Amino acid sequence: MTVDVDPDTLLAARPKHHPHRWRLARAGVVNVWYYYDTTFQFTGGRMILRGTNGSGKSRALEMLLPFLLDADRRKMDATGSGKVRLEDLMRHGAHGQNRLGYLWLELARQEDDQAEQFLTIGALVRFSVSTGEAKPWYFTTPLRVGVDLPLMDDRRQPLSREHLGELIGADRITEKADVHRERVGATVFGLSGNSGKERYGGLLQLLHTLRAPDMGNRIDEGNLPKILSDALPPLSENTLREAGERLDSLSDSREEQRRLVEAVEHIDTFLDVYRRYTVRALFDTAEQARVAAIAAKDFADNEQKAEHAHAALVLDHSEILRRLAEARAQDVVLQSTIEGIKDSDAYKAGLNIENLAQSVSSLGRAAGSDLSAAVARRQEESAAVRRIDTQAEEIAAEAKRACAVLNEVRQAASGARMPITTLPATVAVDLTPQEPPQELVRSTLTDAPELFSRPSPTRLEVVPDDVDEAHRTVVDAAQAMSRRSTEATSRLATAKALDNRENEVSIAEDRAEELSERAAENAAQAQDTADDRDDRARALATAWRRWTADDQTRSLLGDIDWASTAVGPLLIDADALTGEPAGDDLTQLDEAASESSSSARNAIADSRATLRREDLDDKAAREHLLDEQNGLRADRDSEPPAAPWMRTGPPGSVPLWRTVEFGADLNEVDRAGLEAALLSAGLLSAALSTDGTVRAEDGQVLLTLDAPEAVCSLTTVLQWDPASGLPRELVTAVLSRVGSGPGHGTWVDVDGRWGSGPLQGKNSADRARYVGAAARAAARAERLAEIDEELAKIQLRSDERTRQLARLTEAEATLKKHVRAAPRTTELDRARTTASIAAATAARSLRDATTAHSEAVRRRRELTEDSSAHEQQCSRLGLPYDQAGLADVAAKANQAKENCRGLADRLDALRRRRSTRLTELQELGKAIDERRQAEFVAEESWREWHSAHAKFAALQEAVGTEAKEVRERLKTAKTAHRKVGLLIDGLTDKERELDKKSTAAELRMQGARVDTRNGENAMRTALTLLTDRSSLAGVAEAATGGGRFDLPAMPEVPTSTDVEQAAVTVQRALERKGKAADENALMRALQAVSAGLSNTFDLSQTRTLDVWLIDLTDATGRYPVAVAAARLREQAERGASALTDREHKVFTDFVIGGVGEELRRRLGQAEGLVTAMNTSLRDIRTSHGIGVRLKWELVEPKDSPIGRIRELVQSSAAIRSTEETDELIRLLKDRVDDRFKEDPDGGYSAHLRSALDYRQWHRVEVFILGPAPGQERKISRRARLSQGETRFVSYVALFAAADAYLSGLPDTSQALRLILLDDAFAKVDDRTIAELMGLLVRLDVDFCMTGHALWGTYSQVPGVDVYEIRRAEGTAAVATHVHWDGRARHYLRSAG
User: Fold this and answer.
1) Which residues of 1233-1251 are buried (b: 16+ CB within 10 A; e: fewer)?
2) pLDDT digit string (tens) for 735-781?
3) Which of 268, 1005, 1050, 1185 registers the highest number of CB atoms within 10 A of its CB?
4) Where do the record's region annotations for Disordered lie (predicted)?
5) Integer Cα distance of 750 and 1104 in angstroms
6) Does residue 362 sit within a domain?
7) d(Cα 1165, Cα 1258) in Å, to the nearest integer?
8) Residues forming beta bridges with residue 655, ordered by sequence position
9) CA torsion sign, 794 to 796 to 802 to 808?
10) Tens digits of per-residue pLDDT, 264-292?
């Protein structure tokens, strides 16, 4: 096609010129793909690669640009499909060997009066055949390839990484793609920092967009606005990722909420089944009660009806008996009257006339019957003739149908390619009507004979005459057609199978291709994940080195021999954990910090245990002291020290020390000695019983009143204490039997000595404490002071321990925090798993791809062989090959077969009808004979009657009227007598019937009474079951959807109306939605929900009153499932609300503060870019005045959510009001939530990127300006532009977009200006291409293009290098260099 442009058609403003900027100078490929050493020149920054498809021109562009600028291995493929991988590029042409290769690009720039500067941007790629991995390193250097930077050694082998580092410096080489990208962005485009990264990313995206080889097709499809929209800067990945990570941090809460919601959904799903089950149970129970109530009511009604019916029958029976008696009396009277008449003379005289009248009447009846029989025979004869004629018509119609089917058979047989010549020529019937004969016929006794037309059948002739032979011929034809159909159907099945196999083989081939592509993608993914795994392994080693060397680590953990721990290898070699896992246990590494801190933790634990033990001891002592203090303050005396074996004294006994008091003359020293002696002798705490027995603490009897009194007893130093509660005489008697001093069996002395038989001893005390109220009071005061002092000491120790525990807790927290801060292997473990899965997937994909390819080749070969055999077989049978032809033959053969069968049926029917007609003709002959005989008999009977009738008339004339009157009276009496007899017979029968009915009615009445009682019992039983089932826990709540119902109050003896009302109340309260669920459905649902809730809740079931009760048990208890479901729904709603609040806060802090501001900046940049595009386009016009303008606007109305978001984000967060911020959060969150609904498994980063891509909110519309002033048309199919014009306008707009983006860079004086086009200017003529290239020259934009037959040798282009790429399959690519100097082509040597 040709665009109507003339030379110099584009009128641009004065050319742009950036004399000091970076320009494309050279590029090269060394040992990559089939390029082994190829250098490309860029005269004036311009170069074109041309060649046939598959030659490698696009491959060269993909390897060089923009790959060397962005180091993005995933976007090397110009089509965007990701099929081009470094591994494949290095594998092809490697001939099965490991390989090193270089890709490089040289830029040049020159300041005024200064030496030219150069910058080489390159990539070294190492490929391993064994691993199938390609490892790139990126570098930048001012050295020039082939000038002062050789990339191959003397043996023509590419330099190693180490050798390259020696030449350019190791610091200029990096394996990090992002580091290389930052270097190129800053050096070549002046873009640095975070904002620079983002702008550089946008520029690279524009280059990728324009490089797509389907750009021309996308323009043709009307996608220019989409292309321009994609060229706008996207949102910052870092900002989106940061906001997404913070939102994803809520994943645990969201997951817990999701599990709760899922549990609620599971339970609600089950509850729906349980509701339908309980509805069915209660509804059926209520229905049983209702039916029972209705039945009881019916039974009662039936009983009442039975009683009424029985009473009515008894009454009717009595009435019949009365009437029967009256009739019998009348019968006797009539019988006597008849006998009197018969005895009269007049009766006897007329008896002869009556007998003759009866004879004439009998003959008349016989003659009339014979005449009627003759009429009937004539009618039968006429009917037979009519039947025969009808059959003749049917035979004719059958023949006509058979003839039509015969024609269809011939047509179908012709279509089946098998004409049949043996069929009859036609099938037809000829009908000829016959003239009927006439005869005289008598019809009645009194009328004369009449003329009657005798019916005659129509004559019939059939063609063919031998229908049986025609039938056999048609049957044979049907068999032949059946064989033809079988052949065609068999071949059709084969054809279908072959076509199906063709589809399957095509699918297999496509599948093989798809698997090959997937294998390549998976291999790239495996390499990326392996790189990520190794990066994380090195990062983990670095983190451990920092952590172990940290001063706080040494301070908290002490001196640790890290070399002997799992961390040791990482401290020695940072790559210890890189590569495939070799059985190393990362768990030990995660536990290393914890294990190394065990000594510090144990020391803290030991110290804490000691303090707690001391605290327990002091608490026990304090409680004991407080108890003692309270007792002393309550004047409770302290008891003497008790032995461990001390027993409780006998009932009513009192310790001896409570019964005595010191004598007034005894001094303090003697009192102390005497009390000490009593204590040591066991007497002080001995129990004194009311019988005078003194028992020791162990229960042994020490003294009784039977013992002798002492000469000098204790009565001299001790006296009875009235407060003891024991009698004075008893206490005195006991004291008198204990000696005061030696000389008695049991004695004590004031100096502390004592004796009891052979036992003696001595004890001392500083003062008396137990004997006497004064002594005990003093002891209490002294002990209270001691207790206060001891309690104070205990409190001091407790305070100190509290401070020590606080210090231990702080130390422990610090230790735990530091240990938790130790590096973890989670990310490495996850990366290893991901890499392992990716590697396995890649291997499996490669294996699957190889297998699929072999299988596709085998199946194609087998299909070709089977197709050839099928065609040969079809040719032998005279059949077509294809499905349509075979299907048509099979269909026509089937049709012919069916038609033959139909024709055979028609002929068979014709034969049967013809045979039936012959039978009917025979039957007609019989009917004629019978008619003739009947007419003869009728005539003879008429003659006999006629003769007798004449005789009777003459006799009747001769007899008088008296006899006639007698006969009339007799006749009347006999008639009355017969009527009475009939009445008696009827009444008798009716009486018997009523008697039976009355008896049966009585039995029914008794049965109805029994039914009524049984119905009432069944009704009450059903009501009880309904009440009990309705009261089961959780059943009513489940059946009513969460509500309840109250049964009406029942009287003591409920009526059927009461029960029916109760049943209807229950049925109306039930939520009857959905199909009723039976017990099997409930059990299946229970099994399903139990599996879904296995880790959260327990469901239990019990069967009560034949109803399954389902309970749910959680941490709070056990509840009926309907009640539990309501609680869980409420809990889920509260959880969702809480999660929403947290998400709102994160949205406020990060989405609004981060993404919102980013969105505001991007909108401003996009508007500025569109403005810059229009500025660039403003001065670009064709000679016809055609220009282009862009319009960027929202795709939705301004009052839509998107319009409101755009309006709100245009204000900075610092000046936006709280209400506006809340509104913005809601709008953004709604969009993100919508994405979550579409993809619940996606992360927030992905959903934020999709929901907040402002480019999807807008559309770019392209308007064509002119040629008339003010004329403006939107580019579309209705604009009536040719394909070439559309592409011309589109390329102008795209070039303006590139110019606007490049002109907006911060340092346009140095920044590289370039555009990349693959399969450039397809379907555009040379003159237009020249003008478009001239436009790029005037815009001062370097370019690198590919095209099948693209030249740049136009006067508008001052210089360009064109390379013709040629390559045979499996051989090296050869580039023939053609240089254009603006006037002529110069063919130079081939490169490569």
Assistant:
1) eebeeeeeeebbbebbbbb
2) 888 998 888 889 999 899 999 888 889 988 888 888 877 777 777 78
3) 1005
4) 516-535, 625-650
5) 86
6) yes
7) 14
8) 687
9) negative
10) 788 888 888 888 888 888 888 888 888 99
> Do 1231 and 1366 lie in a common domain?
no
Whether residues 249 and 216 share a domain: the answer is no
Confidence bin at 9 (pLDDT 50/70/90): very low
Query: Given this model, what pLDDT does residue 158 score?
Result: 95
**Is the pLDDT assigned to residue 1375 strictly greater than 50?**
yes
Q: In this predicted model, what pLDDT tens digit does every residue of 1068-1083 receive, in sequence order?
A: 888 777 788 888 888 8
3 state DSSP class of 1359? coil
Q: Is the CA virtual torsion 1278, 1281, 1284, 1290 positive or negative?
A: negative
Percent pLDDT > 90 in the chain is 11
Tell me, yes or no, whether 476 and 419 share the same domain.
yes
The answer to whether residue 1040 is domain-embedded is no
Determine the pLDDT at residue 903: 80
- Its sign, for the CA torsion 715, 721, 724, 725, is positive
Residues 6 or more apart whose CB falls under 8 angstroms from that of 124 comprise: 100, 101, 102, 136, 137, 138, 139, 158, 159, 161, 164, 173
The first and second tokens of residue 610, run together, are: 């000691």
Q: Is the pLDDT of residue 10 over 50?
A: no
- The count of domains in the chain is 4
In terms of domains, do 1239 and 1319 share one?
no
Contact 211, 1318 (CB under 8 A): yes
Q: Quick check: 3 pLDDT over 50?
A: no
E-assigned strands of 1203-1341? 1258-1265, 1272-1274, 1314-1317
Tokens of 395: 């035979």
Q: Are 183 and 171 in contact (CB under 8 A)?
A: no
Rg of the chain over Cα atoms, rounded to whole angstroms, equals 62
Q: Answer whether 709's CB lies under 8 Å from 747's CB.
A: no
Sequence-separated (6 or more) residues with CB below 8 Å from residue 92: 33, 34
Report how far Cα 945 is from the mean position of its chain's Cα atoms: 102
- Mean pLDDT over 1035-1050 rounds to 76
Residue type for position 596: S
> Can you tell me whether residue 1378 is helix, strand or coil?
strand
The domain of 399 spans: 351-483+894-965
Residue 885 lies in a domain: no
740 token code pair: 């005061």
Roughly how many angstroms between the first and final C-alpha of the chain, as a whole number? 36
Contacts for 1194 with CB less than 8 Å, ≥ 6 apart: 1200, 1202, 1203, 1206, 1257, 1258, 1259
Angstrom distance (rounded) from CA 1303 to CA 1311: 9
Q: What are the beta bridge partners of residue 790?
A: none
Q: How far apart are CA 73 and CA 54, in angstroms?
A: 21
Main-chain phi, psi angles of 762, to 5 degrees: -150, 145
- Claim to verify: residue 1251 and residue 1280 sit in the same structural domain: no
Q: What are phi and psi of 156, to 5 degrees?
A: 65, 30
- Does residue 1 surpass a pLDDT of 50? no
Give the Cα separation of 963 and 952 in Å (integer). 15
Strand 1314-1317 and strand 46-50: the pairing is unpaired
- Asked if residue 7 has pLDDT above 60, the reply is no
The 10s digit of each residue's pLDDT in 319-351 is: 887 787 788 777 777 776 776 666 665 555 555
Question: Helix, strand, or coil here: 350?
Answer: coil
Note whether 43 and 71 are same-domain residues.
yes
| Helix spans in 755-879 (H) | 773-820, 826-877
Closest CA to 527 of 834, 181, 104, 827: 834
Percent of the chain with pLDDT strictly greater than 70: 86
109 φ/ψ sector (left φ>0, alpha ψ -120 to 50, else beta): beta
Provide DSSP, 1289-1321.
HHHHHHHHHHHHHHHTSTTTTTS--EEEESSTT
